[in-house]
Amino acid sequence: MHRPAAKEAIQAMAEHDIDIESHRSQGVSVGLLRMADFVVVMAPKHERFILESAPELAPKIVRIWEYAQAPLDEIADPVNQDLPAFRACRDLLEESIDSWLNSII
To answer: Quick one: DSSP state of residue 4?
Structure first.
């Protein structure tokens, strides 16, 4: 089932001039992951799920929380939380993704 982004996610991203109103979620499938160059995960449980389904994908996995400035065990999904939680997640992801990208270019 394809679901729209949470209203808090839409608002948090709009504050950075990113429009995700037309975004729809998509379930993860091994076929989809095999097509990816990288599989960016926010938490160890996501990595475990992928590795249990398709261990050959291990080289593609990026543990994005490892690129945050402060040591983290994961970047928690703010689902069902308030706007400040979505802003905090957005900021952590932005920082971590920038750091990761800088490490590969």
So the answer is: B
Beta bridge partners of 41: 63
Which two tokens mark 5? Answer: 């982004």
Gap between the Cα atoms of 94 and 105, Å rounded: 16
Asked if the structure places residue 40 within a domain, the reply is yes
- The CATH number of the domain holding residue 100 is 3.40.50.2300
CA pair distance 12, 20, nearest whole angstrom: 10
Main-chain dihedrals φ then ψ at residue 99, nearest 5 degrees: -65, -45
pLDDT tens profile 76-103: 999 999 999 999 999 999 999 999 999 9
**Domain coverage including residue 89:** 7-104
